[in-house]
# Entry
Amino acid sequence: MKTHPSTDVSSTDVSSTDVSRDIFIVTQTFPPHIGGMESVMYALANGLAARGYNMHVFGDKPFDAASENFSFSHTDWFKPWRAWRKKLSLTAALRQQTDPLIICDSWKSVAAVPDIERIGGRLVVLAHGQEYLKTGRHAERVSRALARTHILIANSKDTLERATPFLPSAQVTRHVIAPTFALPADAPPITLTKNDNRAPLKLVSLCRLEARKGLAQTIKALAGMKSELPDFTWQIAGIGPEAENLHATIRACGLEDQVFLSGHLDVEDKVEFLSNADLFIMPSYQHGNSLEGFGISYIEAARFGVPALAGNTGGAREAVLHGETGWCVDTLNPDELAAALREAMTDTERREQLGRQAQERYLAEFTGPDILDRFVNLCGLR
# Structure
């Protein structure tokens, strides 16, 4: 399917897993919707199924799972009743279970989980970041949900720190795992010199177009120092509510011939898009109750030896290590953003060094099979 990432399970020995084990995923984020969380949950379901587990996904919207190796049911009801209806379906599915493992995409999905203690199961809750910024009057609900949790798995240390105040006690086991389940075990060779100082630098972005991604600030920074920079093109792939504002900013800055919004990018087109890039740009920052919990796109770029310009808030500074695999900046500080762009675009040797180090880190820490191994072990599935 075009919108779903494939999951590399080449390192899997299915015979070593308990193939009779049933695992239930309860999620509000799943295809056919397009987004980072949707891709993560799809990759997790697909990856665990490929390892021999009997996977059952309970989602919110219709999804054609006829060609998938997991079962899928949905509850497309009016939102206030959705958790109740999903809970009825899950209760029926768990009736014959003696030791089920239930994975929730966030604390919000715990409301759809029946009394798991009564049937002796375990509850794993994933944490992604910004759901802990929007608690407000729901703080008590968050704490109640996490009080039922056995294992909390956060996508970054930053996210874990944001979730910790809501955890009732040390009884909840806590872990940090990067959500890169879908990424391959290998990395392609890096083109020794991607840019021969004659062709324009290729800048790329791949993300949902939201204000917090820092793209508008970057457009303005580039326009303000254009005479100091080498020739460049910047392809921004993605869709979202910020698209109209970005178009207007590009026009106002006179960069229509260099900065382009290319819309949605299919999974199979990512290789060409990223492998020819010189620099990945997504200097995200906290915008209201929205921030980058981790940033899988940074890691996707790192696989191709592309260093990243990231923000210094949320989990982005863990996905990109400042001065090692890219640059992490205060996006709302124009001078700091401009300085990082200037170095990244004019110092070829430095840029390529950080790109090589980014790829080395990818292979050491973020390949999908290794990440899935960690997840399986931490959930006690082996």
About this structure: Residues 1-17 have pLDDT under 50 and may be disordered. The chain has two domains: 14-183+368-378, 201-365. The two ends are 30 Å apart (CA to CA).
